[in-house]
Amino acid sequence: MRNTLHSMPKVELHTHIDCSLDFKTASLLQPGMSFAEYKEAFVGPEKCKDLVQFLQCIDPALALMQTRLALQVSVDGLIRQLAADNVLYAEIRFAPHLHTQNGLRPEEVVETVLAQMFESSEREGIYCRLILCTLRDFNKEQSYEVTDLVARYQTQGVVALDLAADEANFPLDEHIAAFRRANTLGLNTIAHAGEARGADSVLETLENLGVSRIGHGVRSVEDPRVLERVVKEGIHLEVCPTCNIQTDIFPELKDHSLVQLKQAGVKFSLNTDARATTGVSLTEEYERVAHTFDWTEQDLLTSSRMALDASFAPDDVKQSIQEKLEVFEAASVE
Ligand SMILES: [Zn+2]
């Protein structure tokens, strides 16, 4: 099944640009680096103490990603990896304000990333869209700024506002107003929740942020009422299994809540989250899930279909990807 899983057309909704500098990309940004040095700086330990330790592993990449050229190289590297995974449609994400240390304005950061995203994805023959993140530790003004960037670039490839970073130590309070503004403006919204904190975090996100998707949300299973609400409201969970093991949400993959989510009828997709920091490709993610839970090709195709349904792709793109998934499915049952 390994070859099949590699060639299987995929849809990925949750992958961070700054967590995805592979060795080739990082070597372009820091020439002369050995693979051992790369692993030391850019790949996190197999088990982090918690999400906070995991987030610290991104600092070396962020330190490099402060110029237009570095942003271009980073985006190009990620799209190369997506193509190698046979991803047909992806939504990639990052926080523009983390790339302004050398004087770039957030608008310049977004425009640089968008231009490179379209150039590289056209070359690779895949579709890509961009999600902009505000961060838990940002203040109200910064969150408003990110919302305004999403509004400003929504016709140019930006499709949603996301809330990311340290869920356990920073409350939602500073971000509620920005998400209200986004909802009022009709923008798509997503938030990371139910990862470093439990089902209560999912609940407060649903009550306050008006999201259609949740990054992770895998701890919804800790409260049957929250799980029921996720199902009832058709909230899509962007599940990133290997990363959840690394941040110690679950001890091992066999302990992951994915099976419970599937049984409960939750809509979800499989994603890498952090291709470099976690050290995983989407094909490997599929392989691990298939192996651990005895999932079939059909199960994995269903997850790509659910991803496509929950994506913010234009209808014609959705249609085109849907047809490619069908062609693959028809060929694999023959
Ligand atoms: Zn994430």
UniProtKB/TrEMBL annotation:
UniProt-listed Gene3D superfamilies: Metal-dependent hydrolases
EC number(s) from the headed UniProt entry: 3.5.4.4
SUPFAM superfamilies the UniProt entry points to: Metallo-dependent hydrolases (SSF51556)
Keyword terms of this UniProt record: Hydrolase, Metal-binding, Plasmid, Zinc
Ranges for domain Adenosine deaminase: 9-325
Domain of life: Bacteria
Gene Ontology molecular function: hydrolase activity
Name this polypeptide is given: adenosine deaminase
Phylogenetic classification of the source organism: Bacteria, Pseudomonadati, Pseudomonadota, Alphaproteobacteria, Hyphomicrobiales
